[in-house]
Amino acid sequence: HFQDIQHLLDVLNKLVDRGNSVLIIEHNMDMIKVADHIIDIGPEGGSGGGQVLYEGTPREMLKVKESFTAKFLKEEFK
Q1: Could you read off the pLDDT of 19-71 as tens digits, one per residue?
Q2: pLDDT per residue over 30-43, tens digit each?
Q3: Are the C-beta atoms of 41 and 15 separated by less than 8 Å?
Q4: How far apart are CA 34 and CA 36, in angstroms?
Q5: What whole-number distance in Å separates Cα of residue 74 and Cα of residue 30?
Q6: Residue partners of 39: CB distance under 8 A and separation at least 6
Q7: Cβ atoms of 40 and 27 closer than 8 Å
Q8: Over the stretch 5-23, which tens digit does the pLDDT of each residue have?
Q9: CA–CA distances in Å: residue 30 to residues 49, 52, 53, 69
Q10: How many angstroms separate the CA atoms of 26 and 58, rounded?
Q11: Residues paired with residue 51 on neighbouring β-strands, in sequence order
Q12: Are 30 and 2 in contact (CB under 8 A)?
């Protein structure tokens, strides 16, 4: 569904360019890697999660060893 993701990114970027803020909850790495700011909550789901592991840019998140998201995101930046 990369075409769908790209179309969604285009629409979201237009909203941001017009001065709007956009908040999304997403698990798709293509979306996460282009975000201006992310908040990663984990380290797991349910009772094993709920802690803020990281807040900032996607690239800086790669340093967070406890984050499963960071492990998958590293592959996107290769």
Answers
A1: 999 999 999 999 999 999 999 999 998 999 999 999 999 999 999 999 999 99
A2: 999 999 999 999 99
A3: no
A4: 7
A5: 12
A6: 52, 54, 55
A7: no
A8: 899 999 999 999 999 999 9
A9: 23, 21, 20, 12
A10: 13
A11: 42
A12: yes
Q: Which residues, at least 6 apart from 74, have a Cβ–Cβ distance to it below 8 Å?
A: 62
Residue 11 tokens read as: 């629409």
Tokens at 75, concatenated: 């592959």
What number of residues does the chain have? 78
CA dihedral 39, 37, 59, 50 (to 10 degrees): 0
**pTM of the complete model:** 0.81
